[in-house]
Structure prediction request, 326 residues.
Amino acid sequence: MPFQSRSVFPHDFRWTDPHTWPWIVWVWAGFLLLGWIAPLWKWLQRDRVKSWPTTSGFVESIGEPEPRKFLGWTIPQTSSQGILQIQYSYSALGQSFRGRHSLDSSSKFSLDDFTNRLVRLPVRVQYHPEKPSSSALLDSSIEALLRHAPPLSSEEKQRIRAAHEIPAIYRPWLQLLMYLALAGFLISLCINIACVLGKQIPPDVPFFLMHIGIFVVFFPAFFAAKKMLGGTVRRDFWKVVMKDAPEVVYYLFYVIFVYGWLTGIHSFFTSNPGNGQPSTPSSSPDWLAFSGVWMIFYYASFAILWSAHNSCFKYAHLPADSKFSE
Prediction:
């Protein structure tokens, strides 16, 4: 069957008329909505805490979280690296209370800034009006805490740069590679949608070029991820390497990852290698399977490079040192 149109959508498709949208467009609209659910829930939680009364407290300690206990038994933790816990005390309604606030490697704050220099500093605490023993720290309170803290020493700043900063020689390429990865993801997405809708892929689409493009963007992204990862444990890998990108980007990665694997499994079971027909790289099952893999790698590269690009600005306020910046 000859290829009639290069559009991946039906001929009567119009973005302004949802009634003409094919079902796959609604599926991806649901994916986008799903990616926003967790950030929206966190935002609602923070917004609810904002309405609580405010009191003054003091930072008691900063360190790794205490081991959990169950029925009197201490549950051993495999590793708490990448998680810090701020313990603070405060007074509310004439009583004294203690609270805890956990920060992990995916938070908006750099854990390197949370040292013992913050102990005994005042911090604003939100407490529940009906249950004052329940409390929380807002991001604005933590920002004020860091703003009024004693400055980091030159040695501490250099250590942070050495552990996390992207070498200067690679920084000019981050944005270009990020856009290349985004283009690769969008092309993969269009190919995937065309396959799902049963449309024939034109033979002039560069099949093997999409393979090569993965190596062009993924290896630099992996290198940037290693610099951002620092000493964080493996279970926090994706949180750390995407922490400086919008939060929805992180959640969409898992949606795309699952979708890519499901389309690959579907193409595996729907293909029929025993039908006597030769398999070509442009056959529909191959396009569907490979487009799912391409989407995962290109999107992961795009998210990591976006985060790495933003992280360069985060450490820009630290003093430059030729021994660490190159």
Summary: Strands lie at 54-63, 68-70, 73-75, 83-92, 95-104, 122-127, 135-136.
